[in-house]
């Protein structure tokens, strides 16, 4: 990494920026423009059953429902039925086909959401493997009877490492998962995830790494000199952009003349062909917040001690940033994120996709300052610089958070924690213990019926233990009028003793309250008796393509095995798993239609539901 003195000079020197003139520096710098006439920077979203979506999201969802979902659900149904015939297992009850074929009308289709957890590269890789098994464009997934669910999803959410997957998939115009992770796209410069280059130090060549570090620092200089807050998260954003944003491949990875994803904003996703045609699920990224006004009695065990469950959770979409939490219940247009409170001009270009991806995966606030200063962690020089500039602890706190001008300044005094803060301090989306981005899918205004959750967290030797699901239950219990969540185990012993992380499990099957049905798949053990490949340490920051491919393939098996059985050392996938999955997907729609469970659906729900 950069010598301290050079880093200090480069960050604060307009002369060096003028000489460098990196394309990325200009594209990453927000600008102030005249606000369009009649522009409102705050939309009150309502609470409880009075919640409302933005008109743009409502249009996207309704258009997707009428133009895309009919054929998507029919294709998925055909894949399931084809697998049932091939396996010669019990046919689905007629109500499943009636719902998915459209015989009951488009309003009977399930509103289906997919949530991908945090957990660094491990979460991104296992999340990609799971999505590949749900992708109808994958012939193996179609043959397995799980393909097509990705196309039928209305929403897809991600946080931390899972948001790397969600944001990269969205901005790459929704390619297949192998194309996303591995294959270059000549027209956009996309080179896949470029995982062969470490997120910490891309080469073993000191000179080349020094030049790379100079580029990173210079790329955020324009934002700083324009008067916008910068922090360690901005450098993290510029690193992540080279992996998860269009414009970087093996041939130009170290080329300072290309923007490396700078200028790709979250709001610009609306210009993509798959977004304009409503062909991709509506993407949402989840971020946690820090505030010294917080109620620190609501810390979830094992989470970041600075982020209680009652702190606002913010969501970012192509249209808005904000929160449905009852203390705020407000949103701001994503295009104008970064506008300073009280300003008579609007900011554009602050909502860089890489900055939002970095914000959701901002682990720096939970790391020890002294370990940074000992030079053992990523981005040490910037922290050293700010430490020398100020010995004030508050300055250090700001440095390791993502700093965003507060669009909700002055709102909801006495209820909203940061009503009097001019800047928001944003941190990793899982810092409060909720490692799966459920909250946006629980908003009543979205009416989500069923959630597929892939858990790539790593609490036990890099395996998921279910605790991130329990954390969401604990949080929603604190806000019962705003969010409904199905009952899940509250203790680690139940998750472990009932082996709920070793196979798919359904939660909320028989809930009397209107909660979504949860289809939970954890990266909790290797599938089908295989050697473990997916319990990747969170600290691994570089991968060979073959290793990612092997882990994704193992996650494909995990997603398609169901409750596997073992006889004489031979493991077999549950031949009824695709049918059982379809039964779960339509179960809320079935209940709304007043139809009783029957046939294979009745036995499936008994087998896969947690009671």
How would you describe this structure to a colleague?
This protein is α+β, with helices and mostly antiparallel strands and 611 residues long. It has 2 domains: 265 residues, no CATH class; 263 residues, no CATH class. It is built from 25 helices and 16 strands. The strands form 3 sheets. Strands 2, 3, 4, 5, 6, 7, 8, 10, 11, 12, 13 and 14 form a 12-stranded mixed beta sheet that branches. A two-stranded antiparallel sheet has the order 1-9. A hairpin with a 3-residue loop joins strand 6 and strand 7.
Number of helices: 25
- Count of discrete domains: 2
* Class from helix and strand fractions: alpha+beta
Helix content: 25-40%
Gap between N and C termini: 52 Å
Q: Average the pLDDT over all residues and give the rounded result.
A: 91
Poorly predicted spans: 1-12, 15-21, 369-376, 389-394
- β-strand amount: 5-15%
* Apparent shape: globular
Using only C-alpha atoms, the radius of gyration works out to 23 Å
Biggest sheet, in brief?
A: 12 strands, mixed
Tally of strands: 16
Short synopsis of the structure:
This protein has 611 residues and is of the alpha+beta class. The protein contains 25 helices and 16 strands. The strands form 3 sheets. Strands 2, 3, 4, 5, 6, 7, 8, 10, 11, 12, 13 and 14 form a 12-stranded mixed β-sheet that branches.
